[in-house]
């Protein structure tokens, strides 16, 4: 019997997550005998709980295709961690009520670690609540920390942006270092895994190029060694470029820039490593320095997205549909790297039980002995992921973006309150 599908975006968005959405919606149209409409959740899983379902069939093919050039989350995202079914059964019963009301038999959740956990919980509805559902998680995260998959859609483009930004900023600092700035610090995302900070090393054309220091969450921060390294580099090169992950920790395991605030997933709010390091350099070394935080820029820079990353994003959306109509449940399409020297890749299904709540950190084998940089092995892994350009169309000097109608279906159930 033909069923409708529910698709939602979750967590921090990326410059290519909408490419996944577009590929999934277009692929679903090929299976009209099995999939009716694709409803997009307004603001992630909240869209399902609140019965706020966007009817993507009301959009033109041109509009759906245009999503591939659009950063952000076209349908809205959220940070909402579902509790276990036995802790909050009512949430899951509500999902079933909405699914029944709108004949939804396919559930696609596009996100990172916490989203994989949510999808895994939803996949158990069939067994525990007796409602048939095919639940497929779709990978997305600039953090690149999902288990099993070789890389995560969204990471390659963020890595490309970071590498380019590091290179360009380094040239700026170098040109001014004789009489002005001696140290530049770029703060990038990465709570527990240093993939994004490591990607800055792709800016190097030689071992002496910037970034001269990369601070990773996997390496305990040592203030004395850091300051000595900065001082030495400035003395020999005249300037120093530092790329620091927001998740750098001290010897006590505390984030250097942890606030008292928590996000919706219960994680400490981070941000502030760059000004912390700047203050340290000011007080201890008396060196003029500047800092920047790439923040949302690194994950939304669609104008310089990686073509490889875009292809990854589209492929996982396409395979998610194919897995669902085959009756698969509780799986994720993951990227598998080929074993040849030339970069190749394929998509295969992996069980969410092996992915949910598992964090993939930067391997120690990728980090230099002094802990301040990454090695050739890391570059070999990272390099293919930023290859190729996929420029959007421009109009009046800026990317041209199509507007979606975002028409919601008529509600059939009482209002939901969290």
Task: Give a structural overview.
It contains 13 helices and 13 strands. With 418 residues, the protein is an alpha/beta fold. It folds into 2 domains: 3-140 and 304-358 and 391-399, Rossmann fold (3-Layer(aba) Sandwich); 155-303 and 366-386, Phosphofructokinase domain (Rossmann fold, 3-Layer(aba) Sandwich). A 5-stranded mixed β-sheet has the order 3-2-1-4-5, sandwiched between helices. It has a 4-stranded parallel β-sheet with strand order 7-8-6-9, with helices on both faces. A two-stranded antiparallel sheet has the order 10-11. It is elongated. The two termini are 32 Å apart. The model has no long low-confidence stretch (mean pLDDT 95).
Q: Would you spell out the secondary-structure blueprint of this structure?
A:
Blueprint: E1 3-9, H1 17-28, E2 35-41, H2 45-49, E3 53-55, H3 61-66, H4 89-101, E4 104-111, H5 113-123, H6 125-129, E5 134-139, H7 155-176, E6 183-188, H8 195-199, E7 213-215, H9 223-237, E8 240-245, H10 273-285, E9 289-293, H11 295-300, H12 307-325, E10 331-337, E11 345-351, H13 376-382, E12 394-395, E13 398-399
Parallel strand pairs: 1-2, 1-4, 4-5, 6-8, 6-9, 7-8
Antiparallel strand pairs: 2-3, 10-11, 12-13
Helix pairs in contact: 1-12
